[in-house]
Amino acid sequence: MAPTSTHQVLILSRHADSYRRHVEAAALPDLDIVSAADVAALPETAPRSDLVFGEPSLIAQVLPRLPAVQWIQATWAGVEPLLNPALRRDYLLTNARGVFGVLMCEYVFGYLLAHERRIVEKYASQKLNKWDTKAPGTLHGKTIGLLGVGTIGAALARTGKHFGMIVKGYTRASRDCRDVDEYFHTGEEARFAADLDYVVCIVPNTVATRRLIDREFLAALPARAVIVNPGRGSVIDHDALRAALSGGRLAAAVLDVFETEPLPADDPLWLMPNVFVTSHTAALSLPADIAPLFIDNYRRLVSGQPLKYRVDFTLEY
Amino acid sequence: MAPTSTHQVLILSRHADSYRRHVEAAALPDLDIVSAADVAALPETAPRSDLVFGEPSLIAQVLPRLPAVQWIQATWAGVEPLLNPALRRDYLLTNARGVFGVLMCEYVFGYLLAHERRIVEKYASQKLNKWDTKAPGTLHGKTIGLLGVGTIGAALARTGKHFGMIVKGYTRASRDCRDVDEYFHTGEEARFAADLDYVVCIVPNTVATRRLIDREFLAALPARAVIVNPGRGSVIDHDALRAALSGGRLAAAVLDVFETEPLPADDPLWLMPNVFVTSHTAALSLPADIAPLFIDNYRRLVSGQPLKYRVDFTLEY
């Protein structure tokens, strides 16, 4: 890929038209664009693409038919479909990062404040004409635990400090976020969980994070704790979670992601009063936010700079 | 009140016991303490009190029986009962300020985020087993208008900037909060209201603020706007508000205060789907937060320094 060669990007996304408009507007040098909103509509020239920009679930289906691929930019943070061991890994994979912090903060702190201020409960009282003077709680002085401190975790830590919270972070190895008051690593799960008011799961789906929130972890949390999961469904043992919630050993759970989506209609989580199901909408990938990642990385590519947000196939993120 | 004389404070509050414990724990010099939880239980020695610390509604009832009073520290921000023209004003009045910013931020941003994230609506969908993927909104880039920029307004402005909002401020004259992007004053109400997504009323109850949010102000707001009122009920013309809400000329209202409290059972506001009644709980006066104001001001008094948060009887705040 010498700087002067012409590249061809295949845009493969449900929002292909919107992404195409954003990429065209950037007038990137030496770039041909082909696009499709679905794998069934792949253009004839697609196999010539050395670049792909799109949704991992769609790209994984056609990767064997794209022999020229050298770089894939995913529109999502999660790239699980491309980590399927049956697929090739001899290309550069970059994912979407650094753009979800704003929406994730609004999601997480929206539900944290709703819990403290009893927003749903007070609205129910109101519909019974009840002047409900029950005192609300406060985030100030409470403790939030972040399972994962990447760019999203750092944004959550900063907002936690803004609201006067104590911030604990659980990471594989990193300890470089200055808004985290105390770090914990593998083997320290029980100490991490011990005094949390809130725990937020924002780790990627990897071998190391699967079922990280299991019966033992839940038992280590105080009964007043609230779990928020806008990350990956696989991180939580949902059987153990349902048992903790119905047994009063956990105050509430705010769940955006599940191992099966949509959440099956007969799942008891739907009707538990202390569960909030948000249907994988915590931080949607908006073309206006995501297209600049491809545009910036393409400029890096043609000027010989390293690409941002590269996925390590071994670490799985 | 020479520094060496002995003072007597009358603590008059529903929470008199708690306030008394806090004040006693401070071991203030040259201070006798008497207290009562209600006006009917006023101690015999109360008339000798030169200081009073308590709730304006209770103090106003007994003020004529307290001839020695030279300083009153209110436990509330609102001192309307003491502004009754029939009562004497020949003493120093200080109110509670600087302590409500944290709770007010959590209240206001709790409801702003609940609105953007459709928290109540999504919980209702969930109870119908509906995988509701409707996209939430975001505070980022939205505009918040603060009616009043005192210590609470400054805290709200700072949190608004934290969430990437544009902050407009409406004040009598002040323009010293650096988190306010643009200031407006008397006569500029329509320009202030013109492009707001949110308007928060935190002005005191004065002649100048009564019915500030009237039919005209409401007509100047965009139909997407949400009103939040944790300040004073008198600031809003509730007839005009009900009409705007039921006519679709306003998205929602979050109301903590009313001219008659509790809100009368037959008020249509109770059952309007886009109204949130929070029953005067936005920022409760907690003894642990308020007692330090009296303690600090008492130390200032005996050391001859000016007291903090003095109320101007002419300005009414």
Could you walk me through the main structural features you see in this protein, from its secondary elements to its overall organization?
Two copies of one chain form a homodimer. Chain A starts with 6 loop residues before the first strand and ends in a 15-residue tail after the last helix. Chain A folds into two domains: 7-96 and 285-302, NAD(P)-binding Rossmann-like Domain (Rossmann fold, 3-Layer(aba) Sandwich), CATH 3.40.50.720; 101-277, 3-Layer(aba) Sandwich (Rossmann fold), CATH 3.40.50. In chain A, helix 7 (215-220) links the parallel strand 9 and strand 10 (226-229). Chain A contains nine helices and twelve strands. Helix content of chain A is 28%, strand content 16%. Chain A has a seven-stranded parallel sheet. A five-stranded parallel sheet of chain A has the order 2-1-3-4-5, sandwiched between helices. Chain A has 317 residues and is α/β, with parallel strands linked by helices. Chains A and B meet through helix 3, helix 4 and strand 12 of A and helix 3, helix 4 and strand 12 of B.
Summarize the structure.
With 317 residues, chain A is α/β, with parallel strands linked by helices. In chain A, 28% of the residues lie in helices and 16% in strands. Chain A has helices at 16-25, 56-62, 101-116, 119-126, 151-162, 189-193, 215-220, 238-246, 287-302; strands at 7-12, 31-36, 51-54, 71-74, 92-94, 143-147, 166-170, 182-184, 198-201, 226-229, 252-255, 275-277.
Describe this protein with a few key phrases.
homodimer, seven-stranded parallel sheet, Rossmann fold, 317 residues, elongated, five-stranded parallel sheet
